Amino acid sequence: MTSTILSNSGLLSKFRGSMIGVLIGDCLGGPFEGDTRISKRILGNYFSNLLSGGSIQIFPYTDDTCMTLSTASSLIENKKVDAKDLAKKYVSEYISQPKRGYGYNVVTVFNALKESDFEDVFLPARMQFNGSGSYGNGAAMRIAPVALSGHNKTDESFKNSVEECSRVTHTHPSGINGAILQSYAIKAALKCDASKEFDPLDFISLLEKKMETIEMKGKESPYCESLKKIKDIYLLKQDDISAEEIAEYLGNDVSAHKSVPSAIYSFLRGMKPISEFEISNPFVRTIYFAISIGGDTDTIASMAGGIAGAYYGIESIPDELQKRCELIEEVSKLADQLYNVFGDVTS
């Protein structure tokens, strides 16, 4: 893995790539959500039709994008993570568009926040599941703007920002740590030069080192264990493992520890050709593979898209895919605004 000192234009491309990658993964993954086994023929035809311009359908975004955009808007306005403002924006967005696929548990948090007039923005999430909090992937799925805004921060400051954003809805260590891992993956991808040779083992080792420091404080280390599994795939030269095997090996459900590692692997897998899907674009391969894992396809593809977009930049994302996503212009504008506030490479 090669780090680089980015030009301002290069960083802007990566900000745009990450934010639009989140949207594309969400929109294109949505139709397959909940499917345990996805036909390669159907998925291949789906992408071929999109890329050839044969489809004019506009795919709707889900709660993944709703909360990501609310996070970005709050960061832009406050120049930092402001938990109370985040809570208010999440609730307001939900009230305005409640049928975007929000889960029951997060809706319960939103209702409690509204009823309490946001007095303690962390309490409703902390009270869930008999006080243990949620370990779902809802914090990880919206974390891209925080990762982008913290690209020049120290590890401690970066981690604190991610935790504060996460705790509005998720207080279980696995829910928070999933967001931390996802944010570190985006930050690492952002720092890479995509024109240079990439070593997946270096990338995973970097994330593993970060998570070892974090998970050593707890009784369990599901993220370090999953990162070791991914490392073993490459050490044993088994990086052609099937999507079905990844679903079994790393997971594909709504829990953070069984979806964030799969998103990270999808980013890595997209770097190499996929036998049943002949396309040269690695960003497209990333989204294809993430969806092919099945299960929580919109969120896994959205998280994978956020990492891949941060690595490859906006130029890697075909216009044909961007045009098929609802809200594409608004997301692009928010990415630019995020960059205007946080993108100074000299700070």
From TrEMBL:
Pfam families: ADP_ribosyl_GH (PF03747). Mg(2+) binds at T62, D63, D64, D296, D298, T299. The keyword Hydrolase applies. Gene3D superfamilies: ADP-ribosylation/Crystallin J1. It comes from the Eukaryota. Its EC number is 3.2.1.143. It is found in: Chromosome; Cytoplasm; Mitochondrion matrix; Nucleus. GO terms for molecular function: metal ion binding; poly(ADP-ribose) glycohydrolase activity. Keywords: Chromosome, Cytoplasm, DNA damage, DNA repair, Hydrolase, Magnesium, Metal-binding, Mitochondrion, Nucleus. Its cofactor is Mg(2+). Its main location: nucleus. Binds 2 magnesium ions per subunit. GO terms for cellular component: chromosome; mitochondrial matrix; nucleus. One of its GO terms (biological process) is DNA repair. The keyword DNA damage applies. It catalyses: alpha-NAD(+) + H2O = ADP-D-ribose + nicotinamide + H(+). Belongs to the ADP-ribosylglycohydrolase family. Monomer. This is ADP-ribosylhydrolase ARH3. It comes from Nephila pilipes (Giant wood spider). The gene is adprs.
